[in-house]
Specification:
The protein has 17 helices and no strands. With 355 residues, it is mainly alpha-helical. This is Permease.
């Protein structure tokens, strides 16, 4: 009897063994390392400012620092309303305006369609960041590449928001608005014609030309909010950088250097064109930055305003990621040269040369 009990117990242990192993708790996955967010960094900075406020007050009580902070706040406060309005309109254009609507209005010949697309930038305002995906969308809808690129260059520079902002920034120089309009529009048209003549489709990556499905109502609203939010964050950051740069230029750079650039127009034009590429400001805000650089003649400032919306480091990166590096390394430098020449010619005509 005991042997039978012993023999019957053996399979029981065999059955229980795997169950016992299976019932063991699995090893808990390692918790991901907590990353420091920008909010925590801000809190630390605020605490440090409160603790060292007496030292900060002494350090900030310097005429140069006070002048720079005043210039920075003035640039940001003046430009912010135009920036927000431009971002909202660009988000609405990207989400709700079908690219086929522009395609139906274009002439069949590219030589005539390019100027029409450039002028359409007046009615369809977008910032530089939004113009790149809109241009890609136009290509995917069958619009000729040269026409889409003309719209890409014209929309951020000749739209009413930018022109009104330019007028506000230069209240005593109304010719600056017309000079910027003609210079930017000329840049868009010339580059469109050059691409129609010399551009090759293989320079643009295939996915940029692939036809995309239309969005439904819910997706359009989602695109509107996401595009507006992303553009506002990006453009706001560039506005802050531009405001800081304007403050530094007005305080740190000796006045003699600015006067030298003012006396040597060619050098001033080259420097301001390069500065427009490096700063990568939003077109709704760059006029206030240019106007804040006192001592600089109007012609170099005009070059700054025409070159910036056409090509800068931000746009070069966006174009390389959207259309490919082969496109960007050809289109970017050519745009820089054409924009500089068009700005100088426009300034000579409407600003009397040096202004």
């Amino acid at each position: 009897m005991s042997e039978q009990q012993h023999s019957s117990a053996e399979p029981t242990e065999t059955q229980v063994g795997p169950v016992a192993v299976a019932d063991r708790p699995a090893t808990a996955p390692a918790e991901p390392k907590r990353r420091i967010t920008s909010l925590e960094v801000l809190c630390v900075l605020l605490i440090a400012a409160l603790v060292g406020q007496s030292w900060l007050a002494t350090w900030l009580d310097v005429p140069a620092i006070q002048t720079g902070s005043t210039i920075f706040v003035a640039v940001c406060v003046q430009a912010l309303p135009f920036l927000v309005l431009g971002v909202l309109i660009s988000g609405a254009i990207a989400a709700f305006v079908p690219a086929s609507a522009l395609n139906r209005l274009l002439p069949k010949r590219q030589s005539m369609a390019v100027p029409v697309a450039g002028v359409a930038g007046v009615a369809l305002p977008t910032c530089e960041c939004a113009a790149v995906p809109v241009a890609r969308r136009l290509m995917q809808q069958g619009v000729p590449t040269s026409v889409a690129l003309a719209f890409l260059l014209a929309a951020p520079a000749v739209n009413p928001i930018v022109l009104v902002a330019t007028n506000v920034a230069f209240p005593n120089n109304p010719g600056m608005v017309l000079a910027r309009l003609v210079g930017s529009l000329g840049t868009a048209i010339v580059m469109g014609w050059l691409w129609a003549r010399f551009g090759k489709a293989e320079w643009i990556i295939e996915r940029a030309l692939r036809r995309m499905p239309d969005l439904d109502g819910r997706s359009r609203w989602r695109m509107f909010f996401e595009t507006s939010r992303a553009d506002l964050v990006d453009a706001g950051g560039f506005l802050v950088i531009g405001g800081l740069t304007a403050a530094v230029l007005n305080v740190a750079i000796p006045r003699e250097w600015v006067n030298t650039l003012g006396e040597q127009i060619i050098l001033g034009v080259i420097v301001m064109a390069a500065l427009a590429v490096l700063l990568a400001l939003c077109s709704e805000a760059d006029a206030f930055v240019a106007a804040s650089i006192s001592g600089m003649p109007l012609l170099p400032k005009l070059v700054f305003l025409v070159v910036g919306p056409a090509i800068d480091v931000k746009l070069f990166a966006l174009q390389a990621g959207t259309f490919g590096k082969s496109f960007a390394v050809r289109f970017g430098p050519a745009t820089f040269v054409v924009a500089t020449v068009c700005a100088v010619l426009s300034g000579v005509v409407f600003l009397g040369g040096v202004g």
